Queue: 3 jobs
Job 1
Amino acid sequence: MPTTPKQHEQLRLNLPPVRAISFGGGVQSTALLVLAAQGKIDFRLFLFSNVGHDSESPKTLEYVETIAKPYAKRHGIELVELHRVMQRSGEVRTLWEDLTREGSRSLKIPVRMSNGAPGTRSCTATYKIEVIGRELKRRGADAENPATIGIGISVDEIHRANKRRCEPHERIVYPLLDLGLRRIDCMRIIREAGLPVPPKSACFFCPFHRPETWHDQRRSEPELFEKSCQLEDILNERRDMLGKSHVYLTRFGKPLREAIPDGVDLLPLFDEADGTCDSGWCMT
């Protein structure tokens, strides 16, 4: 016998609140996966919002597929891979596609302006926060029954916590902060569980990469480095047509190929100034 709207609403309100971890495939969120498997944190659902197989670091995607997913399955943890799906067409859209499609004027990533300052960005909101938010709502989260969403920020990155207002359907928590764990502790936890430590998670073309990261990419992943350069070229060809100044993927105010020269082992100005996505939804 079908339920009435009132009965359906009552069933929805009686659902236990959703508890999930925003899983990025990096060190901190993998440590949370291990802690959940060990029963040290109360989370059995991990949500991985994949920005795109043409956008995420291939090493991260390989780690998630070959290490994290099998580990989660062995321990009865639900690790769900999500994608940005256009609501009208049902089309899966990647960040790379949004940035490079013909006619797009989008600058969703925090490109560096000619003065080195980062521009505004919407990539985290569009490809991480909103995608995970829709999944939380699909599972019953709303303002009356908000989901608890755990973010993998460790003590040494505490400045990244509380960088944005919670949506009505969610309550953000920081399990690593509650446990007093640093990134180095997370690496130890992963190793002691018998897992390899994952690479840093991020889009391979992220303008928040530090210079040494770009240098490593040019040296060890030249195909990806060239794609990053091509993205910068595409964005600036579009900027030329619009009569706007050029933008860059580094803070040095020059094309990536020039900013990160080939065959140089140590580059100047390798400091912490480039920073990372400060919300904790990326690079964890």
Note: The longest helix spans residues 222-241.
Job 2
Amino acid sequence: MSFSDTVPEGGAKGNPVQITEDEAAVYDRQIRLWGLEAQQRMRNATILIVRLRGTATEAIKNIVLAGIGKLVLVDSDEVTDEDLGAGFFFREEDVGKKKVEAAKARIESLNPLVTVQTMKHHTLLERESLDALVMSVDLVCVTDWHCEGLIRINEVCRRFGKPFYAGGTFGLLGYIFCDLLKHDYIAPDRSAQGDGPRSVKTSQIYSPLHMALRHRWSGLTKRQTKELNPAAVYAILALWEYQKMKDGKVPNSVDATPELLSIANAMLAEAEVNSQVLPTMPSELIESVCRSASHEFSPVCAVVGGLLAQDILKALAAREAPIANFFVFDGNSGSGTVVRMNM
């Protein structure tokens, strides 16, 4: 195994690196926005991103430009022709190369102040290697992976007290999930009276993914249920269940519509979603999902990856409330909603 496939050293450990005058000049606008202390936290953060597809590409661009300290990127796949659409780190001549090798120099060129380490060995996600990898970083983000894998890595993050993000797209649908454990942050005090704005320290307790998936919708009014767009939520959750049944594969034709519709309707009933709002899953939505889920669309990846990066930076800066805790983007309508799943 080469050096590029070894677990990174340092990361969350060691003495904090102080921002230099040159770095302060580069990040001047951000420091004015959220303060030197928040920028310092980002400067010392090591972020692990697993899988390099369209969503991760957009997220990496934003967090690297924002000035994190180190990016550790794990992906054992090779670049394919399909990756050239949403993966702007890749070129035609990269087809057949390892993704992380093709992308590394282009990621580094975005911000030479950020250290980029790549790993292409699939065994890094096995038990002992994964434990060591998670311990060596400050935050973990897994993109475009099946639900069982997300749950497993989320549980490892919980054991070692590391914040966890997941994000990805299925055609026109996209999602972000986060488990920030107990997260403290500074938020505006909207109840404050007086001349100037005031801020207060606030805490949120998050749920792991396996608990979030047990969320029940009973107790919500018709209006509240409708605003949360449960059809898009359960289209994604049904796709995760489909992947579990099909060894990680997603539907790639309308022939899968009856099976996915059956899965989605069963989940909808179990979750006690208000039947006056959504008695059954819309068959046209499921048909659209089956037709497009296996493809990546650059605009959807840009929206989801951009919001994913923004939320990671919020969590690191500890200013403003991050997502709590499941965000869904519906490209059919161009709308997004946040659902508090079992929080």
Note: The radius of gyration is 20 Å.
Job 3
Amino acid sequence: MRSKQPTIWDIAIKLNVSISTVSRALRNAPDINPETKKAVLDLAHQLDYQPNTIATSLRKNKTDIIGVMVPEFVHAFFPSIILGIQEVANAAGYKVMVMQSGESLEIEKHNLQAMVSSRVDGLILAITRETNDYEHIISAQRKGLPIVFFNRVVDELQGSKVMVDDYKGAYIAVQHLIQTGCRRIAHLAGPENMTIGRNRLNGYLDALKAHQVPIEDELIMHCDFVDGRARACTQRLLTMENRPDALFAVNDPTAIEALICIRENGLSIPDDIALAGFSNAPHGAFVTPSLTSVVQPIHEIGGLAAQLLLRQIKAPQQFIPETHVLDTTLVIRQSTRAKPE
């Protein structure tokens, strides 16, 4: 059975002082007698008294807590973002409440309601792959909840956004594949409702156009961040009569699923088929062969999202939403061919 938490009433009764005296002593008010203050603090320590943060937040209309909601914890990308958020939030005196939606729209809705009910001061959000109805998010914003979107953003939602240059990242990855001699390049694509999916697809298409490489619709398959779908799509590509000589994947988890499928089919990477991903996940450097990938400034994404949210919390009337697009680079590893001399 859960024991009753001591309150300022308990301290006041034991010391035969008023509740206001206890409250002032706990707040280190200057107008309190030093001996009384010491007695209050000593008893509070003895009783293991903890302030009622809910009551305090109701009085202040502020909890000093920011929420973070991400689609999954399975891969390193989102946990790494959270570390960047926590560093900035903690330095500013804020605590961080983290929830994950499991790539489910319904869980996202439930978690958002829990965040609102918990009176978080603001929210940093990456939507799920299922999210195509935004009323729950818009409703929270109408209630005054500041929200900053990152990575998985959509044009329909208003607010500050932090993302990387997905278009450029995809373009340089596909251009690298072309420059190594690949001509039949498939794309394992992301969700079309998300900006990152569209921008990475457009980068892929424009790189092909710029180098006069034919675009073939049958080589574009939407895996949509669904576990197992990348492997199934890769298998379909490998069984084509004229199979691709390279794959560009929307992210590294998708690329690694493809890598496993290619190896299971007895093909050599990159000799039979080259492979490039996006996000530079830590395990991408340790798979065999190591994965060529687009590098994102993950820590900076989290830190910048937190900075934008804290600015909005502190001055909501003066704050104007901002969109920040961070640069990407390409790290070349063993999964792609060397450029011809």
Note: The chain has twelve helices and twelve strands.
